[in-house]
């Protein structure tokens, strides 16, 4: 299951109903206010302010309605209802000013609605592109139960440079979690290329080291036409769960190693790190693969460095292991979905300011 954290409101999304109707309600309220106040009390400021306020939250049609109501109310209050209009040189000066403001408000509402609609289309395409690149991880795949959660740093674009995938093959279930240099639209093409190579390689390459060589070759090819300063690279963690065995093989290319949740404790698995993909051509020896035996109820958490590099307002890094350990001691046992949802909510509770893309993948081996 993939949970994609989205914005609370899309650009261009309508304001709440009460806010859209507020300008018209204020105009209606001015009628009894006029009848209950002395003749020298002026409500010009409120009448004049309503059309621009309507333009900020509504389209040109509703803004035109509020403008017409404002002109009508102004005419009744200051031209026919006996209120003091000495603030203007003539009785029609204020009305002429209001008509001009109304016309500008309608124009402003039309321009805002047009650009908001365009922004919504752009964001919809960007989100669709991200969902097309990142797979929708099923709850169960092979012998694994999985849950993934992703939050891009650039939430206005909904795309980023983190990647993950889980594939069931004849060699067992293979997993990748990675982080491409940069974020936003520039990183999406590299993410797509790496995932394509991974999905092809898991079917043919007999071990994780050869799969890593394939990914390195793809990164080298992508960098061949770039200048030295535009060279891209990616960190990657790959895991393999052989069929019929309760164990996991792990290889890492400059990526944080996964956490193991076992018997109420959280510990980090240590694997010899290799260089990031795109830089591994400098390596003269193979990257070591470690094997870890798993027991009942073991839970693995793979994540990108955006999680542990998130800081609160005081500049403190998010202490993933400590906070996860406290949570585990409270509940005793967590499911994969609960683990992913906890990190999502706990980052907000910590007050973390997300500067980089964030992705987590929780995995449990079923009996």
TrEMBL record:
It comes from the Bacteria. Residues 144-365 form the PPM-type phosphatase domain. InterPro entries: Bact_Sigma-Reg, PPM-type-like_dom_sf, PPM-type_phosphatase-like_dom. Coiled coil: none annotated. Keywords: Hydrolase, Membrane, Transmembrane, Transmembrane helix. GO terms for molecular function: phosphatase activity. The keyword Hydrolase applies. SMART domains: PP2C_SIG. The chain crosses the membrane at residues 20-49, 61-82, 94-111. This is Stage II sporulation protein E. It comes from Stackebrandtia endophytica.
């Amino acid at each position: 299951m993939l949970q994609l954290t989205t914005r609370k409101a899309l650009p261009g999304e309508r304001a709440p109903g009460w806010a859209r109707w507020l300008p018209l309600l204020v105009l209606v309220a001015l009628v009894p206010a006029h009848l209950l106040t002395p003749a020298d009390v002026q409500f010009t400021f409120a009448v004049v302010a309503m059309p621009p306020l309507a333009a900020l939250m509504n389209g040109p049609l509703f803004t035109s309605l509020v403008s017409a109501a404002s002109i009508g109310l102004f005419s009744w209050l200051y031209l026919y209802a006996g209120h003091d209009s000495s603030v203007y040189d003539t009785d029609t000066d204020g009305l002429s000013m209001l008509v001009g403001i109304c016309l500008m408000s309608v124009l402003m509402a039309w321009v805002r609605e047009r650009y908001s609609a365009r922004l919504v289309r752009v964001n919809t395409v960007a989100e669709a592109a991200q969902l097309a690149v990142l797979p929708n991880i099923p709850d169960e795949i092979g012998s694994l139960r999985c849950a993934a959660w992703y939050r891009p740093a650039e939430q206005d674009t909904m795309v980023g440079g983190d990647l993950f995938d889980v594939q069931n093959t004849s060699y067992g279930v293979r997993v990748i979690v990675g982080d491409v240099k940069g974020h936003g639209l520039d990183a999406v093409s590299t993410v797509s290329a790496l995932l394509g190579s991974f999905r092809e390689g898991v079917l043919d390459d007999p071990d994780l080291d050869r799969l890593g060589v394939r990914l390195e070759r793809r990164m080298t090819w992508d960098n061949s036409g770039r200048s030295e300063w535009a060279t891209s690279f990616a960190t990657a963690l790959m895991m393999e769960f052989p069929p019929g065995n309760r164990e996991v093989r792990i290889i890492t290319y400059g990526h944080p190693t996964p956490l193991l949740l076992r018997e109420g404790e959280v510990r980090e698995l240590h694997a010899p790190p290799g260089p990031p993909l795109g830089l591994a051509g400098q390596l003269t020896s193979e990257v070591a693969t470690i094997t870890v035996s798993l027991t009942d109820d073991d839970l693995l958490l793979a994540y990108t460095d955006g999680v542990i590099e998130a800081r609160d307002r005081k500049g403190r890094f998010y202490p993933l292991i400590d906070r996860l350990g406290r949570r585990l001691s409270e509940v005793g046992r967590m499911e994969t979905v609960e683990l992913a949802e906890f990190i999502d909510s706990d980052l907000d509770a910590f007050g973390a300011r997300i500067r980089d893309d964030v992705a987590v993948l929780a995995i449990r081996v079923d009996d």
